[in-house]
Structure formats: structure tokens, C-alpha cells
């Protein structure tokens, strides 16, 4: 018999239809029931309006949408013969604010979703402290606002650079938010210094101290999450940034990748209308997000974790927490190497001159986000968005399961529900 | 279960057609833990509260403060229950219905996806034709895309402290919306002397003349109560897009609409002819200090 389960607290809602046989999930399909029509809203508008409208796709990763939109427009400039060369300063500011958005997302996911859900399954003591997540996220948001004016829904990236012109005092403000965030992460999450955390090489190293992180790790082991939740063991990283290597991974082996091979297909949802589409790379399903990103960077701890526990729910969760530390460290480097003399924006040709297509790809918190734009005399004739959750939480047939469908298969329903959340689902992005 | 002894206000947060932006903005409130300690959270979209959504959607409970985020769509269902049914049920006994964000207030960005159907709770853009006319006296509109966290913090604290909230004709608290986004803008001197920003990426110049800034026409305290405690759109060189007004979203956000190089919209409450005369005089001044960069790191020794 197929039973419906409503999932909340996942950036919107989803329904999972479980087919249970012998108390185990035989198969599950996923429905995203809400739709907003962002792509049609954009049609017929000035290309620059995408910089205001697309951040409104999502309240938690709108900044990633802004960056994908500006990159798509800049790519259209390039394809029309007007290549734009950003200054290092503009690039670094954009990267810094993107990273801060990723970090706020990961903190909220950890403290508002993963820990409360894990607590339901375990016997060891793990305190639910959702407001820790909100506090850390608010520090990240402040750091974004220093450059971007506000968060959520900033629109401060424009073709050629950024609208802000930070002075030293603003860089110091951002640096001070970052220091505060690192202190919080060390004291409240890790229980050890960030430097030490980043040098950990094995899962055994978690035994030496006690903190939210180690309690989380114990909980994952207690629930057997290191032996459950295996997906495809193949990953994609598409966004080009200083903190990633865009690549396709099969296990830990890396291969080249090109975003032109991304396609989408209608989701399979026999019980209810869904507005989701599945995203594929060369017609195959891949997992997207922090685990793939950290493997692509050959982070020793994550490689070791993968050797022991493969792409289990354990590895997926721990990689996302590790990525917070990794990105905090990278943010310091960005802010410390900032040439304030450079221009914030370079002059670009009037958008009305641009008739071309463009693609903008970024790594959003949950994985690759792609915006494709088609411009005629600077006006949008087509706009197409592919989001990370479409890669991870697709809903396909039993013959070709998506990463999440595969990860839930053969498990008790309560485990499957937790594993669903380990992918950090964004329903609002999916049904843009 | 509800604790009766402390008599805290019960708050329920429902969502219509939304991006979750207001939820996430609210989570940035600096005194969030203190505020949440003063209320009883029945349901909240991103974190556990007293009840699950399944329990809430049965419409058997009641709340004192109903917060609604997102545009109203009469056909929208959550957990197979029409959101309209939930709104009708929970607004019946609520003391206040707070529409958070421009979608819930006026239709906002998600009115555009279904213009004939979607609206705000009380207003459809600026027309008073929303679905909740029957309880209009309870409705507080906190427009903005998204809502500024401290605007909701203020409203909830006023309610908790039993203080009367003065509203404007669009049901927005006067304390928050009698200001214009222009107030407190660091570019005001450039506005006074009609000095345009030469482009983006600059601290200098006013964004009203060329870059589409709606600051002088927009009721919002973004430059008085700073975003995330540190900044605002105009401070970071981005024009104000007028996101608190019923006509948001307009088009061509980064361009000022002009007729014969005169801005089509002039600052709120100023007769156009007088404004143009005054602007013409101001433009004749050449204030050297406003002509170059404020700080030139390249040339200053």
C-alpha cells in the first residue's frame, strides 16, 4: 500500500509517497505541490530586472540566484562579442557574499532541521537549539549586508561588478562579523579551534572531544547512518569558484564537466500533480552539494570518511558541517587579499545592444544552480532555471531512481525520512 | 499543549504563495530569542513549534496573532486544505492578522504569476478588494520584499505590550512607514544639489536621477532602521526598488523613467512644477566637493 507523508521544515513542503513492503521502503516518489511561475514572470522584461526578480525565487539562497542571473547576463554579453572582465575586487566581494549565504544555510539546516530530526531517533543526549542556527545565520547575513546592503533579497551584483564601493571600515566590519562567526562555530559547534578542526584526518579524531559536532556524529553512528542512505556515489560540481573544482566524480575519481550537458525532465509523480522537474547530467542522475564539493577538493577528512562510509547519510551530513569550516577559512583569505584601489564595476555596453543567449552557473548551498537566459535587444525572451534540489530530490521511476529515491530504498520509514532531509531540500527553489 | 499560567500570546505563522524570504528575514532579528520567550509559537515554517502542520491544518486550534506570509491564492492548498479555509478559521478568534511582506500585503511579486487570482489579504495592489475584508480591522500590513526583521519585531512587541499601533491608510504602522526610504540615505546631499551618480559601484552621487531609485517615493524606514543592523540598498549603491509600495514590482528597476529628461515621478508630496524650478536652481550650483570621489585611495598619499 502506498502511504503519503507530508514533509515540513524543508524550505517549503513536499509529500513523499512510500510504498512499504515488509516494513521497509520498497520505493518512494516525491511531490512538490506548489508553483510560482518565476520563469514566465521574467519573460518580456529588461534583462537587468532578472537581478531583482530572481533573488525572490528563494528566501534562503536568493543571493545564489542573483549571482547565477548576473553570470548568465555576463555570458550573454560575451556571446554577443562584448566580453566583460571583472576586477579581482568585484569577484572577491561576490564570492565572499555567496559563501556567507552558504554558511547561513548550513547553520540553519544543522540546528533547525538535522539535530531536531536526529533527536527523535536517538537515545544519547543531543540538545535541540534551533536558535543557535538563527544566531549564526544572522552573523553571516550581516557580513553579506556590509557589501550587499541587505539579506535576504539583495540585488547588488550588476553586469560588470557590484554596486557597492566598500571602504576599509566596511571590510573591517565584515572581518569582525567573520571573526564572531568563527568564534561561535568553535565554541558552540566544534568544541575545538577551527584550525584544529580543519586538520582532522579521520572520523576517529572525533573521539577526542565533546561538542554539538561530536554528539551529532555519535547520533549518526547510533542510528547506523554510516551504513544507510547510500545514493549514486557519483557527484557533480558545476559552479566555478575559488573554493571549488568544477568536476564530475565517480566515487573519488574526478572527470571534466560541462554545464551544456545538463538537461531536465518531468518528475514522476503518479499520485499527485507535482511542479518539479528532475535535473540530469548526460542523462544520468548525480548527487550535488557539499559532499561532492569536498571530495572534489580532496579534503583529507572527507576522503577518509568516504573510504570508510562511502556516500552514506553520515558522510553527507558531516561533509556539510565540514564545509562550514572550510568556507570560513576561505573567507578569511578573501577578505585579507582585497585591493581596495580597484574599481567595483567596469563599464559595459548598454544591455539594449545584447541579443544572445547566456548561462550562469554557481554553486549554491545545496549544489549547482543554473540560469539560462535568452536576450533580444536586452529584453528577456526565455529564462530557464535549474536548481540543486532538482538534481538530488528528483522523482523518477523504479528503473531509474534519483539520488534521494535510491538513498531511501530498503530502509525503515523513519530512517528514510531523516535521510530525505540530509540532502537539505529546497522546495521553493525546485518549484520556481 | 498550551501553558495557561503565563498567558502568552499564541502565534501561528501560515504561508501562501511565497519564497520563504520573510521567514528567513525574521530569523535575523537581533533579539529573536527574547521575543520568542514572550510568545507561544504554535507553528513556524522553518523550525519545530508546538504543533505540526498536519495538526494546524485540521483547523481545531486557535491563535491570538496570525502571521501570513506570501500572496493569497484562493486555489492554494497546503496539506490538501485550502489556505483560505485555514485563514478564515484562524482569523476568527485572532486579535491581529499580520500580513508579512509585500505579497501578503498587496500581492507583490507572486501576484505576477497569477494576476487574476492572487492578491494580498486586504489589498489587491492598492485596491481594497482582498479576501479578508470582513476582518479588516485586525489586519496589519508589513509590506516589504522581504519584510525588515525589526518591523515585525516592533509590531509583535507592541501587541505583547498591549500598545496601540497607529496605522496608515494601507494598514501599515505609521511608526515604520511614515518615513521614506530616502530618510537617512547617505546620498541625500547629492539629492539636494541634483548631482547624479555617474554609474554604479560608487559611494558618490544620487541614484534617483538615472539609476531608478524610488527612495523619495517609498514609505519605508530602511535607512533609519538599517538592514541586518549594518546597511541598506542605497548605502550599498543599489537603488531602492520601492518594494514596500502596492505597485511593486514595477519594471526597468535600474532606470529612472523620464519625460524629456525630467523624472516622471518626483518626490512624494512635492508639486512637479515647483520641484523642477527648485531642481533647476540647485543644478546651477557647482559644489566642488560633490564633483569628485570622496576618498580616492589611488591618488591620496
UniProtKB/TrEMBL annotation, chain A:
Keyword set, alphabetical order? Iron, Magnesium, Metal-binding, Nickel, Oxidoreductase, Plasmid
Show the Pfam families listed in the entry: NiFeSe_Hases
Report residues binding Ni(2+): 58, 61, 426
- Cofactor(s) recorded in Swiss-Prot or TrEMBL: Fe cation; Ni(2+)
Name the principal localization, coarsely classed.
other
SUPFAM superfamilies in the record: HydB/Nqo4-like
**Residues annotated for Mg(2+) binding in this entry:** 39, 385, 432
A Gene Ontology molecular function term for this protein is: nickel cation binding
Q: Which InterPro entries match?
A: Ni-dep_hyd_lsu, Ni-dep_hyd_lsu_Ni_BS, NiFe-Hase_large, NiFe/NiFeSe_hydrgnase_LSU
Report residues binding Fe cation. 61, 429
Q: Which superkingdom is the protein from?
A: Bacteria
Q: What are the GO cellular component annotations?
A: cell envelope
The subcellular location is:
Cell envelope
Q: Which family does it belong to?
A: Belongs to the [NiFe]/[NiFeSe] hydrogenase large subunit family.
PANTHER family found in the cross-reference section: HYDROGENASE EXPRESSION_FORMATION PROTEIN HUPK, HYDROGENASE-2 LARGE CHAIN
Q: What is this protein called?
A: Hydrogenase
Automatic annotation (TrEMBL), chain B:
Identify the GO cellular component terms for this protein: [Ni-Fe] hydrogenase complex; cell envelope; ferredoxin hydrogenase complex; membrane
Q: What keywords tag this UniProt record?
A: 3Fe-4S, 4Fe-4S, Iron, Iron-sulfur, Metal-binding, Oxidoreductase, Plasmid, Signal
Question: Any one Gene Ontology biological process term?
Answer: anaerobic respiration
For the ligand ([3Fe-4S] cluster), the binding residues are 222, 240, 243
Binding-site list for [4Fe-4S] cluster 2: 182, 185, 206, 213
Q: Name the positions where [4Fe-4S] cluster 1 binds.
A: 19, 103, 145
User: Pfam family example for this protein?
Assistant: NiFe_hyd_SSU_C
Q: Which cofactor does it need?
A: [4Fe-4S] cluster
Every NADH:ubiquinone oxidoreductase-like 20kDa subunit domain range: 19-158
Could you confirm whether the keyword GTP-binding appears in this record?
A: no
Q: Does the keyword Disulfide bond apply?
A: no
Per the database record, which ranges form the Cytochrome-c3 hydrogenase C-terminal domain?
177-251
Major location category of this protein: other
Family, according to the entry, reads as follows:
Belongs to the [NiFe]/[NiFeSe] hydrogenase small subunit family.
Name it.
Hydrogenase
Amino acid at each position: 500500500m502506498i502511504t503519503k507523508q507530508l514533509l515540513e521544515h524543508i524550505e517549503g513542503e513536499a509529500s513523499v509517497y512510500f510504498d512499504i513492503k515488509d516494513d521497509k521502503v520498497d520505493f518512494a516518489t516525491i511531490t512538490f505541490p506548489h508553483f510560482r511561475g518565476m520563469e514566465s514572470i521574467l519573460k518580456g522584461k529588461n534583462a537587468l530586472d532578472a537581478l531583482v526578480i530572481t533573488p525572490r525565487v528563494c528566501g534562503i539562497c536568493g543571493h545564489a540566484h542573483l549571482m547565477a542571473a548576473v553570470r548568465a547576463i555576463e555570458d550573454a554579453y560575451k556571446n554577443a562579442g562584448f566580453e566583460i572582465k571583472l576586477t579581482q575586487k568585484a569577484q572577491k566581494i561576490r564570492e565572499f557574499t555567496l559563501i556567507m549565504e552558504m554558511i547561513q544555510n548550513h547553520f540553519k539546516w544543522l540546528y533547525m532541521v538535522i539535530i531536531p530530526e536526529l533527536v527523535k531517533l536517538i537515545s544519547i543526549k543531543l540538545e535541540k537549539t534551533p536558535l543557535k542556527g538563527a544566531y549564526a545565520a544572522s552573523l553571516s547575513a550581516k557580513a553579506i549586508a556590509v557589501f550587499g546592503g541587505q539579506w535576504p533579497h539583495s540585488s547588488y551584483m550588476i553586469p560588470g561588478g557590484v554596486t557597492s564601493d566598500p571602504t576599509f571600515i566596511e571590510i573591517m566590519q565584515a572581518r569582525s562579523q567573520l571573526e564572531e562567526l568563527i568564534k561561535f562555530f568553535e565554541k558552540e559547534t566544534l568544541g575545538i579551534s577551527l584550525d584544529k578542526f580543519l586538520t582532522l584526518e579521520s572520523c576517529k579524531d572525533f573521539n577526542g572531544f565533546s561538542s554539538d559536532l561530536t554528539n551529532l556524529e555519535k547520533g549518526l553512528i547510533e542510528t547506523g547512518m554510516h551504513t544507510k542512505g547510500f545514493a549514486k556515489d557519483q557527484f557533480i560540481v558545476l559552479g566555478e569558484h575559488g573554493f571549488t573544482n568544477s568536476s564530475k566524480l565517480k566515487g573519488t575519481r574526478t572527470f571534466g564537466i560541462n554545464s551544456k550537458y545538463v538537461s531536465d525532465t518531468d518528475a514522476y509523480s503518479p499520485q499527485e500533480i507535482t511542479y518539479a522537474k528532475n535535473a540530469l547530467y548526460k542523462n544520468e542522475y548525480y548527487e550535488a552539494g557539499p559532499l561532492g564539493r569536498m571530495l572534489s577538493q580532496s579534503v583529507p577528512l572527507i576522503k577518509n570518511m568516504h573510504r570508510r562510509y562511502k556516500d552514506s547519510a553520515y558522510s553527507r551530513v558531516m561533509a556539510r558541517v565540514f564545509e562550514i569550516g572550510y568556507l570560513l577559512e576561505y573567507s578569511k583569505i578573501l577578505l585579507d587579499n582585497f585591493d581596495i584601489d580597484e574599481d567595483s564595476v567596469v563599464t559595459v555596453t548598454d544591455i539594449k545592444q545584447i541579443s544572445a543567449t547566456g548561462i550562469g552557473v554557481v554553486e549554491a548551498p545545496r549544489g549547482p544552480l543554473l540560469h539560462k537566459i535568452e536576450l533580444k535587444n536586452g529584453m528577456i525572451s526565455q529564462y530557464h532555471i535549474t536548481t540543486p534540489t532538482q538534481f538530488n530530490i528528483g522523482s523518477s521511476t523504479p528503473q531509474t531512481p534519483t539520488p534521494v529515491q535510491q538513498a531511501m530504498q530498503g530502509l525503515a520509514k523513519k530512517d528514510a525520512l531523516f535521510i530525505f532531509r540530509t540532502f537539505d531540500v529546497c522546495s521553493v527553489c525546485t518549484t520556481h | 499543549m498550551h501553558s495557561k499560567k503565563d498567558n502568552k500570546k499564541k502565534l501561528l505563522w501560515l504561508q501562501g504563495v511565497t519564497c520563504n524570504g520573510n521567514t528567513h528575514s525574521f530569523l535575523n532579528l537581533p533579539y529573536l530569542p527574547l521575543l520568542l520567550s514572550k510568545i507561544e509559537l504554535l507553528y513556524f515554517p522553518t523550525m519545530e513549534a508546538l504543533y505540526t502542520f498536519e495538526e494546524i491544518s485540521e483547523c481545531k486550534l486557535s491563535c491570538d496573532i496570525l502571521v501570513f506570509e506570501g500572496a493569497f491564492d484562493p486555489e492554494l492548498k497546503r496539506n490538501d486544505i485550502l489556505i483560505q479555509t485555514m485563514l478564515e478559521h484562524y482569523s476568527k478568534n485572532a486579535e491581529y492578522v499580520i500580513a508579512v511582506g509585500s505579497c501578503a500585503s498587496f500581492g507583490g511579486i507572486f501576484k505576477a504569476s497569477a494576476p487574476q487570482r492572487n492578491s494580498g489579504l486586504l489589498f489587491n495592489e492598492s485596491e481594497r478588494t482582498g479576501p479578508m475584508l470582513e476582518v479588516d480591522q485586525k489586519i496589519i500590513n508589513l509590506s516589504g520584499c522581504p519584510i525588515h526583521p525589526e518591523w515585525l519585531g516592533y509590531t509583535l512587541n507592541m501587541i505583547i505590550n498591549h500598545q496601540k499601533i497607529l496605522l496608515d491608510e494601507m494598514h501599515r504602522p505609521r511608526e515604520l512607514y511614515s518615513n521614506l526610504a530616502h530618510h537617512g540615505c547617505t546620498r541625500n546631499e547629492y539629492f539636494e544639489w541634483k548631482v547624479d551618480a555617474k554609474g554604479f559601484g560608487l559611494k558618490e552621487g544620487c541614484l534617483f536621477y538615472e539609476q531608478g531609485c524610488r527612495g523619495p517615493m517609498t514609505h519605508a524606514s530602511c535607512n533609519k532602521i538599517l538592514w541586518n543592523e549594518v546597511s541598506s540598498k542605497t548605502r550599498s549603491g543599489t537603488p531602492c526598488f520601492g518594494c514596500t509600495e502596492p505597485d511593486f514590482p514595477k519594471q526597468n528597476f535600474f532606470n529612472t523613467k523620464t519625460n524629456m529628461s525630467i523624472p516622471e515621478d518626483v518626490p512624494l508630496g512635492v508639486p512637479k512644477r515647483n520641484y523642477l524650478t527648485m531642481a533647476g536652481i540647485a543644478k546651477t550650483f557647482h559644489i566642488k566637493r560633490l564633483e569628485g570621489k570622496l576618498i580616492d585611495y589611488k591618488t591620496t598619499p
